[in-house]
Amino acid sequence: MTQLTRRKLFAGVAAAGAATALTPLMGRSALASAPAAGKQAPGFYRYKVGDYEITQLSDGARTFPIPDGFIVNLDKDKTLAAAEAAYYPKGQVTVVFNPMVINTGSKLILLDTGFGPGAFAATKGAIGQLGYNMAAAGIDPKAIDIVLLSHFHIDHAGGLRTADGGLVFPNAEIKVPAPEWAFWMDESNISRTNTYNKGHFPNPKKYFAGIESKVTRYEWGKEVAPGITSIATPGHTPGHTSFAIASGSARILAQCDVTNIPSLFLTHPDWQLMYDNDPQLAFATRRKFFDMAVAEKATVVGFHFPFPSVGHVEKAGSDYRLVPMPWNPTI
Fold first, then answer.
1. CB 179 within 8 A of CB 220
2. For residues 282 and 235, is the Cβ–Cβ distance under 8 A?
3. How far is CA 222 from each of CA 181, 263, 302, rounded to the nearest angstrom?
4. What are 171-220's pLDDT values in tens digits?
């Protein structure tokens, strides 16, 4: 039996390399180099929850310089250090955006819309990719029966409209949280918003202008679509909503924006993100939601979790950590 030693292994590698280097000199022509692709593959991923088929879809990602006050209750220098420790580019952070489609067998349901196609050209394809990825996944926007919104921030509801103001999902009923609708449709509530949400305040009326008849308002704690129950998770916005999606004995939790970047805000749930309208309530909600997820050992889907945005949440001391689910080649 031949014994493989470290010396023989490296000698073999060196010999193979020399032979490869000499090949063109021995009569073989070199192969032409392949052109660079220059773009990512389509972003969609499927898995089953009981009899339901879930398709996670990427709407893209934004990498941007960390603004002052990004983490409201943390010094800028510490914020920069935390982002760098999470391996983001120096001085920057990346936020990803991942809607999902639930096929119940009787209904095709889109949970949140992304930014919309108008954002695609404006950002050179960085965001607004939902339509492209739906097409790659074989999902026709006209086939969507229900658009289920968690809240009215632009990355979750802006995709209702095309760049010229048309409807992206023309045949869908649009379901929205009743407390969210009541807040954003009342001009007097602008005084109850923080700086970010004050700037955002006019947007929801633009999303729904002229299509109010297609909008159904739902309450918390109710079944809002087959197997999908709304969960009150206010703080990020006054009507922010998460969902339990169940089929048979299987159940997952869609946390939407209970937390944003998990490497920052799941590991430090007390950090206050500039987008949270009521930071203290958002923190209390975060604790309550993730304590429930930990107790259930639930599969958790996060709109801003790294794609494909599915994993489990575990306790890490007094805080939490995300354990991403392994990629599965079968459905």
1. yes
2. yes
3. 16, 32, 21
4. 999 999 999 999 999 999 999 999 999 999 999 999 999 999 999 999 99
CATH architecture of 45-324: 4-Layer Sandwich (3.60)
d(CA 155, CA 158): 6
Give the integer Cα–Cα distance in Å for 86 and 93.
9
Q: Is 161 exposed, middle or buried (0-12, 13-18, 19+ CB in 10 A)?
A: buried
The per-residue pLDDT for range 245-275, each reduced to its tens digit, is 999 999 999 999 999 999 999 999 999 999 9
56: β partners: 45, 100
Q: What is the C-alpha separation between 83 and 91, in angstroms, rounded?
A: 8
Nearest CA to 183 out of 195, 193, 194 is that of 193
CA separation for the pair 155, 119 (Å, rounded): 10
Q: Is 145 exposed, middle or buried (0-12, 13-18, 19+ CB in 10 A)?
A: middle
Taking the alpha carbons at both ends of the chain, their separation in whole angstroms is 44
Element (H, E) at 120: helix 118-122
Q: How far apart are CA 159 and CA 145, in angstroms?
A: 15
Q: Note whether 301 and 100 are within 8 A (CB).
A: yes
Handedness of CA 247, 249, 254, 258 (dihedral sign): positive
Half-sphere exposure of 283 (CA within 13 A, CB side): 15
One-letter amino acid at 321 equals R
- Model pLDDT, residue 38: 87
178's enclosing H/E stretch is: helix 178-184
Distances (CA, A) of 111 to 73, 108, 224, 287: 31, 10, 11, 23
**Residue 247 contacts residue 50 (beta carbons within 8 Å):** yes
Written as six digits, the tokens of 97 are 């955006």
